[in-house]
Design a protein that fits this description.
The complex is a heterotrimer of chains A (98), B (532) and C (492). Chain A is α+β, with helices and mostly antiparallel strands. Chain A has a domain of 39 residues: Glu-tRNAGln amidotransferase C subunit, N-terminal domain (Histone, subunit A). Helices cover 34% and strands 9% of the residues of chain A. The longest helix of chain A is centred in the N-terminal third of the chain and has 18 residues. Chain C folds into 3 domains: 299 residues, no CATH class; 111 residues, no CATH class; 58 residues, Arc Repressor Mutant, subunit A. The chains are: A alpha+beta (98), B alpha/beta (532), C alpha+beta (492).
């Protein structure tokens, strides 16, 4: 299927990627080609085939509810681009989601 | 002495170390020297940084992104001390190794080949890194890769291309191109790569190495920065099957920190390694036997089948009717998972931040600047494939194809113990020749993705040399892929070892061989003889 | 379902989404502590801060808790369920996806019976269907820095990931609720069940139980109207107020010929209004897919029975038992919701009368603790103390008034001394020694000649004044019944 420039912009918004008009113009045919190729999956796989999401059908992998040492705060904050009051600082949040 | 040390296999080095003929420090220094002269690093300080891509000399491989020289020497000294004190050490204690820069290691940056993580020093070690350290395998540094492991040529690294030691104008394959080139260029006898759709096997094929993707779940993914979680698997590169088996024995381990780690005991890949081919049934996959492959690749593959027969294996024809759908399924499933896995790179907790007035704009600007074009393409494809209205036709349908492919394999393994195919449709291609066409690049993975989707173990080993179609007279390695049922990595190794013994392929390309003799003038003229 | 008219010709339709934060030792996917109120970013690790390469592993206890609560809510346990990723960007969510459950939750098709008191004082039972209960994880906390302290108007936000990854259960009701009282009763009952099962302390003030309400209105007989989602409901009272406000607002809009927008609204407790938080332009595309880092959860029947065997007595059963023992419903509700049952049961087991125990616990004990700012646990008071106190009253050793003082004394001693010892120590026994009391009575009669005349003239009520005098003289320690007898005898 073809992905129109507007659809490219919509997908970029969902993926939270800033895209320029030039990028949209370039991505639209590229993504359309890739999706066109990938669409072959529709040629097989009938309704009665269950999907596989794991190579192994493992189940019930859990851990006991026992505390493990946490990581030192300075080690976790060390990599942060901006820290204030021992917290990760981000510019103002406009949209509330979730 | 130093030049001699770098040509030895890991098994040979381990024997010399155990016998006290050489110290771990000497072995590590020899490889660090080798890196300093051939790779294009600024050999200075505790962690050697790679030169900027533009500053690389024409004969520099650029396999490493950073070399943890001081830590490696310290570890080597510690090993020597403990060995001298009579401590019993592991089988590969003191043997150096190059680690793909997608696995975390404290004290050094992990970049995943991306500007997004430039300078990020992880606050924890990957399980693989811990296991290597516990086994006293000495990590020399972190190797170049396609950004976030997305690519088949290592040209998607934000830090410049890695070159193929067989011909420095060609790609080493990808995404684990740095790990492959480091071993092919004799900078390390062993390396760790990761394989999602062929990222170990294809570079192994293109650089004349043994590269193994173990059964999914036998090597922990904890600390492996995820590309596609249901497919990613770390595994060894080596210049011999035995070396690869030794390394796999160290890294395969049940890990309670990885929910997808298989609880069953991993197969013993060393015990029956040298039992030979007698009685093994080699399955030739009808759908992957040459259509669209370069003639040289097809010829080497044909010779390989004859060799198996001569060695006493039974050749059987098997069919994977849905193999052709593996690649399109893969290019929906992997991007879908990646679109979610890479959402965490948002400029908040680590890595790059591009300032903007609001959090949303900051996220979007950071991701726009931090990710390269291929990563963005895959995030976009995956986001679309999971989005409402498209999920069923793309992600779900691809997951059903995955079931069909796994069933195909199950059926095939009823009549064969090991399946074979060429690893890659082509020999190493020229740098920049496929970057403009994403789908042409994706087609490199056509033979490797089916095993990835099914989770089964697969490896590539050298099967001979073929002429580069675009450069008559240049011989380049061709890889043979072997696949085995889930958790039967041992059978695959056994077949590969027997094949390797009979072939006696010299895994050292001409340039590195020349350096072993005292100079580094890479030339393709002496790579080897190609039968015509 | 019978139609409940909310306003003239209008029906109210409410569904509730309740999030319960589990009281496990560790987070959902990692071994970090879940303790409330730690210094920012101290209970964190690579997993819960979404470091590249880190992986989740399910907390076994969280699954058990989820199953237990699900069964307490009369739900069916799914034999094979799994985790999905809900993809959306938000800075307090470290991975920018929330691991949750989607098409197959652990629990489905439960219900809760809610008892609502009607205007005539009788109780009506309303069944609220529970669509599902699923497992997920909490987000971090954002501190909005700037003028207002709220999201709007802040110029930056500071993120603390201590809460990120704490196990959450989401309980989603069907839109079966038709009035604010039922909504409040549902939330109260759910809270009581959560506490009874011990899976959470269910404190709304600390956010360990949170409630969002989906509210719509329709003209009776019409199809469902457009709903709005109300957030920031921090108490049962807020829930009731917000629903009524929002329903009236919607009715006013519709009666004016307007339409209701699908939106999320914020309840402003101080203004008593709901305000638009954001408009849902289109259904958010969360791109759910099975989390490839996690494997399926299988709940075989044996395991389900093993969990069911851990089920404590639930509030409804306790209330029924109390009711049978003659405890009035209002007190029964207080005993259960106030978590007073262990004391009740202990006192009754020690031989005390159920109604008397209920009276004490919901009356004076609660009152005194509230004055002192103590919990029953901290007070040191035991059920056995209570039984002893009641026995002392019954056998006339203590008057009710004295008993209250003794109770205060036991609490003061934090239970180190029982009621008898406290009464003894402080000289709080009633004066029932006949000789001593007779002397005091005779003196009171002698000094109050006018009142005595009054009584002799037939004004029986006047005797109260003399009883008061005796009490005054004995500092309240006279047995009132005995005093009365003696007064009548002396007056003749």
């Amino acid at each position: 299927m073809a992905l129109s420039p507007d659809e490219v912009r919509h997908v970029a918004r969902l993926a939270r990627l800033a895209v320029t008009d030039e990028e949209v113009a370039a991505l639209s045919p590229q993504l359309s080609d890739i999706l066109g190729y990938a669409e072959q999956v529709g040629e097989v796989a009938a309704d009665d085939v269950p999907p596989t999401t794991h190579p192994f059908a493992l189940t019930n992998v859990t851990r006991p509810d026992e505390r493990r040492p946490s990581t030192a705060r300075e080690d976790i904050l060390a990599a942060a681009p901006s820290v204030e009051q021992d917290r990760f600082s981000v510019p103002r949040i406009v949209a509330e989601e979730g | 002495m130093a030049a001699d040390l770098v040509t030895r296999s890991a098994t040979q080095l381990a024997a010399a170390l155990a016998a006290g003929e050489v110290s771990a420090r000497e072995v590590v220094d020899a490889h660090l020297d080798r890196i300093a002269t051939t790779d294009g690093v600024v050999a200075d300080g505790d962690v050697w940084a790679a030169k900027d891509a533009g500053a690389l000399g024409p004969d520099e491989v650029h396999a490493f992104l950073q070399v943890t020289a001081t830590a490696a020497r310290g570890h080597a000294d510690d090993i020597d001390r403990r060995r001298a004190a009579g401590e019993v050490l592991g089988p590969l204690a003191g043997v150096p190794l190059a680690l793909k820069d997608v696995l975390t290691m404290r004290g050094a940056p992990t970049t995943c080949g991306s500007k997004m993580l430039e300078g990020w020093i992880p606050p924890y070690d990957a399980t693989v890194t811990e296991l290597l350290r516990a086994a006293d395998v000495v990590v020399l540094g972190k190797t170049n890769m396609d950004e976030f492991a997305m690519g088949s040529s290592t040209e998607n690294s934000a830090y410049g291309d890695t070159r193929n030691p067989w011909d420095l104008d060609r790609v080493p394959g990808g995404s684990s191109g740095g790990s492959a080139s480091a071993v092919a260029a004799l900078q390390a006898p062993l390396s760790i790569g990761t394989d999602t759709g062929g990222s170990i096997r294809q570079p192994a094929a293109l650089t004349g190495l043994v590269g193994v993707k173990p059964t999914y779940g036998t090597v922990s993914r904890y600390g492996l920065v995820a590309f596609a979680s249901s497919l990613d698997q770390a595994g060894p590169f080596a210049r011999s099957v035995e070396d690869a088996a030794q390394l796999q024995s160290i890294i395969q381990h049940h890990d309670p920190r990885d929910s997808t780690s298989v609880p069953q005991a991993a197969p013993d890949v060393l015990a029956g390694l040298k039992d030979g081919l007698e009685g093994l049934r080699i399955g030739v996959i009808s759908e992957l036997r040459g259509e669209g492959y370069e003639p040289g690749v097809a010829r080497v593959y044909q010779e390989a089948l004859e060799r198996f027969e001569r060695l006493g294996a039974e050749i059987v024809e098997v069919s994977l009717p849905h193999a052709a759908y593996g690649l399109p399924a893969y290019y929906l499933i992997a991007p879908s998972e990646c679109s979610s896995n890479l959402a965490r790179f948002d400029g908040v907790r680590y890595g790059l931040r591009v300032d903007a007035p609001t959090a949303e704009e900051m996220n979007a600007a950071t991701r726009a600047q931090g990710f390269g074009p291929e990563v963005k393409r895959r995030i976009m494809i995956g986001t679309h494939a999971l989005s409402s209205g498209y999920f069923d036709a793309y992600y779900l349908q691809a997951s059903k194809v995955r079931t069909l492919i796994a069933r195909d394999f199950q059926a095939a393994f009823e009549s064969a113990d090991v399946l074979v195919s060429p690893t890659s449709p082509s020999v190493a291609f020229g740098l920049g020749t496929k970057t403009a066409d994403p789908i042409a690049m994706y087609l490199n993975d056509v033979a490797t993705v089916p095993a990835s989707l099914a989770g089964i173990p697969a490896l590539s080993l050298p099967a001979g040399l073929a002429e580069a179609p675009d450069q008559p007279g240049t011989a380049l390695p061709v890889g043979l892929q072997m696949m085995a049922p889930l958790l039967r990595d041992d059978v695959m190794y056994r077949a590969a070892w027997a094949f390797e013994q009979d072939l006696s392929f010299d895994p050292t390309p001409a340039g590195p061989r020349a350096l072993a003799a005292g100079s580094w003038r890479p030339t393709t003229a002496d790579n080897g003889e190609v039968a015509r | 379902m019978t139609v409940v008219e909310f306003r003239d010709g209008w029906e109210l339709v409410v569904g509730l989404e309740v999030h319960v934060e589990l009281a496990t030792n560790t987070k959902m996917w990692c071994g970090c502590s879940t303790v409330f109120g730690g210094d920012p970013n101290t209970n964190v690790c690579p997993v819960c801060t979404g470091q590249p390469g880190a992986l989740p592993v399910v907390n076994d206890q969280a699954v058990r808790d989820a199953a237990l609560l699900g069964m307490a809510l009369n739900g069916e346990v799914e034999e094979h369920c799994w985790f999905h990723r809900k993809n959306y960007f938000y800075p307090d969510m470290a991975k920018n996806y929330q691991i949750s459950q989607y098409d197959v939750p652990l629990i489905h098709d439960g219900y809760l019976d809610v008892e609502v008191e009607l205007e005539d004082g009788t109780l009506d039972t309303r069944r609220v269907g529970i669509e599902r209960l699923h497992m997920e994880e909490d987000t971090g906390k954002s501190l909005h820095v700037g003028d207002t302290g709220r999201l709007h108007g802040a110029d930056r936000s500071l993120i603390d990931y201590n809460r990120c990854g704490i196990p959450l259960l989401e309980v989603v009701s069907h839109p079966d609720i038709r009035d604010a009282e039922t909504a409040q009763g549902y939330l109260r009952e759910l809270q009581a069940i959560v506490r009874a099962t011990g899976v959470s302390d269910a404190r709304m003030d600390q956010g360990s139980i949170r409630c969002d309400a989906n509210v719509s209105v329709r003209r009776i007989g019409d199809d469902l109207g457009t709903r709005t989602e109300i957030k920031n409901l921090n108490s049962v009272r807020s829930l009731g107020r917000a629903i009524v406000y929002e329903a009236d607002r919607q009715i006013a809009v519709l009666e004016d010929g307007g339409t209701i927008r699908m939106e999320t609204r914020h309840w402003d407790e101080s203004k008593g209004v709901t305000e638009t938080l954001r408009v849902k332009e289109s259904v958010t595309d969360y791109r759910y897919f099975p989390d490839p880092d996690l494997v399926g959860v299988v709940s075989p029947p044996e395991w389900v029975e093993e969990i069911r065997a851990l089920m404590p007595e639930l509030p409804a059963a306790i209330r029924a038992r109390l009711s049978e023992a003659g405890v009035p419903m209002a007190q029964a509700i207080t005993l259960v919701s106030g978590e007073l049952m262990p004391w009740f049961d202990e006192a009754v087991a020690a031989g005390a009368d159920a109604q008397a125990v209920a009276n004490w616990l919901t009356g004076d004990v609660a009152g005194q603790l509230s004055t002192e700012g103590l919990t029953l646990e901290d007070s040191g008071l035991t059920g056995t103390h209570l039984a002893e106190l009641i026995a002392l009253v019954d056998d006339g050793t203590l008057s009710t008034k004295l008993a209250k003082e003794v109770l205060a004394g036991v609490i003061e001693e934090r239970g180190a001394k029982g009621p008898a010892a406290v009464a003894e120590d402080r000289g709080l026994q009633q004066v029932s020694d006949e000789g001593e009391l007779r002397a005091i009575v005779e003196q009171v009669v002698a000094t109050n000649a006018a009142t005595v005349e009054d009584i002799r003239a037939g004004n029986n009520k006047a005797i109260g004044a003399l009883v008061g005098q005796v009490m005054k003289a004995t500092k309240g320690q006279a047995d009132p019944r005995k005093t009365n007898e003696l007064l009548r005898e002396v007056i003749g």
